[in-house]
Design a protein that fits this description.
With about 325 residues, the protein is α/β, with parallel strands linked by helices. About 30% of the residues lie in helices and about 20% in strands. Helix 5 packs parallel to helix 6 and helix 9 runs parallel beside helix 10.
Length: about 325
């Protein structure tokens, strides 16, 4: 079994800004695993917030050797970007060997299109209103916030897209006091969900606080081991394959979270259609789907995912799975 990892860069359609900074391109790692007759692919997006770099994740993947087994992968790599790329490549390889789709191998129903959020970049209120107005035809908008003066941005986006469903992502940028002040206004403006309002290490402050809008754990939830620390703080968990370490753990986390009463959001880093493809399987039946990475790109993979009025469509086999 031969493992290769390479760096790929995709230009963004426009500058993308969150509370942690801005970017103009998506830098990803592509993992390919071949057995001589078949080849499987997976993509990951190393994330500095979790101590990952392109170099460190590439080194983790390159250090693997021999025949790999998905069932043993968690013993070889921690949850994170490296395991995600390898896990998804192994699923793709298995599907090609078997002449079946991944959803069949996983015992899942055939996937259907899912309405996905479209993310508005953090900007000045008037610029965000213009972004919202330009995308007011979309049923679900996601707003990047996370500063002390976000109220004007919220009002501006709602004015620009009065009929769209809105979710808010603070990216750990608020304090407990800021969240408490904004929470009633989130409800007033019809916000459907707020994602990670407080830093993961300070989210105990959410216990006992009013939650007029469902609160979703993102940086506070990585895999099944995270669930024990979420009680009393969150209503929804955001499942991202780059956090869980791939499709295998993502599907298990989804089932475990549902069993404990959490709603499900399926999100992504800014990557190509290859990164989103496995996540479309996890997204089936989720309350919120946020797999808009390819919509933010100026260029994408061959055989890219299709986005239409039904949402993000499942991948064709030529892309993945």
């Amino acid at each position: 079994m031969r493992i290769e990892v390479r760096r790929d860069v995709f230009r963004l359609a426009q500058v993308f800004t969150i509370s942690r900074g801005s970017r103009t391109e998506a830098r990803v790692l592509t993992c390919e695993i071949a057995d001589g007759a078949h080849r499987g692919r997976g993509e990951c997006v190393p994330y500095a917030r979790y101590g990952e770099t392109l170099d460190s994740v590439a080194a983790q993947i390159a250090a693997l050797s021999g025949d790999l087994d998905r069932d043993r992968l968690a013993e070889l790599l921690p949850a994170g970007a490296a395991r995600n790329a390898v896990d998804c490549a192994l699923w793709d390889l298995e599907a090609k060997r078997a002449g079946k789709r991944v959803w069949e191998l996983a015992g899942l129903a055939a996937p259907k299109p899912q309405i996905t959020a479209y993310t508005l970049s953090l900007d000045a209120p008037e610029a965000m209103r213009a972004q919202a107005a330009a995308n007011a035809h979309r049923p679900l908008l996601k707003i990047k916030l996370g500063t002390p003066d976000d109220m004007a941005r919220l009002e501006a986006v709602r004015a620009g897209a009065p009929a769209s469903r809105i979710i808010v992502d603070a990216n750990e940028g608020w304090s407990a006091a800021i969240y408490a002040d904004l929470a009633p206004h989130l409800a007033r403006l019809g916000v459907a969900l707020v994602e990670q309002p407080l830093p993961a290490g300070e989210d105990a402050a959410l216990i006992g606080m009013p939650r007029p809008v469902p609160v979703c754990a993102d940086e506070s939830c990585h895999d099944r081991a995270s669930l024990v620390d979420l009680k009393g703080k969150y209503d929804v968990v955001n499942i991202k394959l780059d956090k869980t370490g791939g499709l295998t753990e993502a599907l298990t986390l989804r089932d475990a979270a549902r069993a404990e009463g959490y709603g499900i959001m399926v999100g992504c880093m800014v990557g190509s259609s290859l990164a989103m493809a496995p996540a479309t399987l996890v997204a089936q039946g989720a309350e919120v789907v946020d797999l808009d990475g390819p919509l933010l790109l100026a260029e994408d993979r061959d055989n890219a995912l299709t986005f239409d009025d039904k949402g993000v469509n499942p991948p064709i086999a030529a892309l993945w799975g």
